[in-house]
Automatic annotation (TrEMBL):
Keywords: Membrane, Transmembrane, Transmembrane helix. The lineage of its organism: Bacteria, Pseudomonadati, Myxococcota, Polyangia, Polyangiales. It comes from Labilithrix luteola. This is Uncharacterized protein. It comes from the Bacteria. The chain crosses the membrane at residues 36-55, 61-87, 108-127, 133-155, 167-186, 206-226.
Length: 264
């Protein structure tokens, strides 16, 4: 089970549709909003500040490049937080941050390799790029939670995604669309709120200069949910591939049998 104690999990392992998984991720995020909020203050707020500072001094193109790197880095603590909230009873945000700092260099190396692979595959055509994004979707989870090397993380992610390639492909499309929607909704909705509700002059739109403060607020705001959703898709596909639902059912039967024996 690769280091994940499925018998202690706080969610029920069963095969779910992708929409059901996305809904579960949303409800899980709401239930644990306090922990997510603490981690966001420690990780996302400084990332947003750094991105805005670079955008105003070096230009929005440099800011987008930095925001991508910071999103890769912020992905680490949120992945660890979600995994611990699912499989552990006592979770402390500061311990998650410390653990993230120890693994950050490996994850950034993996992400650089992933970017290179994505660009190479996408250079041929859209479909190979989409396929590569799908089969490598869980490489971060594998590296962090299964203690895999970079090469094995890609191989293992490919094996997990192949359990339901259609779901993995759909997940890539949904996550990409959600990230874009977060940017656009924050920019358009934020400017409308500033102009109509606060009666102030709104800032220039995203498409005028290639970036905006509101756009980056949306970019970082959706990251916790996207990380949570990807982790739950990872769990769902591992459940299909490794029969976690059957394992937990047999464990429950065994526990009831032991309890009945003790009461006899």
């Amino acid at each position: 089970m690769s280091g994940l104690d499925v018998l202690r999990a706080r969610v029920t392992f069963r095969e779910r549709s992708l929409l059901d998984v996305l809904d579960l991720a949303l409800r899980f995020s709401v239930v644990h909003a306090r922990d997510f909020g603490k981690l966001a203050l420690l990780v996302l707020v400084p990332s947003l500040g750094a991105t805005i500072a670079v955008g105003r001094t070096q230009g929005w193109a440099a800011a987008w490049a930095l925001s991508l790197a910071l999103a890769f880095a912020a992905d680490v603590p949120f992945t660890l937080l979600v995994s611990r909230l699912v499989f552990e009873d006592d979770v402390r945000v500061r311990e998650v941050v410390r653990a993230s700092l120890r693994t950050l260099p490996r994850v950034l190396a993996l992400r650089l390799t992933w970017l290179a692979g994505l660009f190479i595959m996408a250079a041929f055509f859209f479909v190979p790029g989409l396929w590569f994004a799908a089969v490598s979707l869980f490489s971060t989870e594998v590296l962090l939670l299964e203690n895999a090397g970079i090469g094995h993380a890609f191989v293992r992610s490919h094996r997990i995604a192949s359990a339901s390639l259609a779901d993995a492909l759909f997940a890539v499309i949904v996550f990409s669309t959600a990230a874009l929607a977060g940017v656009l909704v924050a920019d358009v909705g934020g400017r409308m709120a500033i102009a109509d509700l606060l009666q102030f002059r709104p800032p220039a739109p995203l498409w005028a200069n290639g970036g905006s403060v509101l756009a980056f607020v949306g970019w970082f705001a959706v990251l916790p949910y996207l990380t949570t959703a990807r982790f739950f898709v990872y769990l769902n596909l591992r459940t299909r591939a490794e029969g976690w639902d059957i394992q937990t059912r047999f464990a429950a039967i065994a526990a009831r049998a032991e309890a009945a024996k003790g009461n006899a």
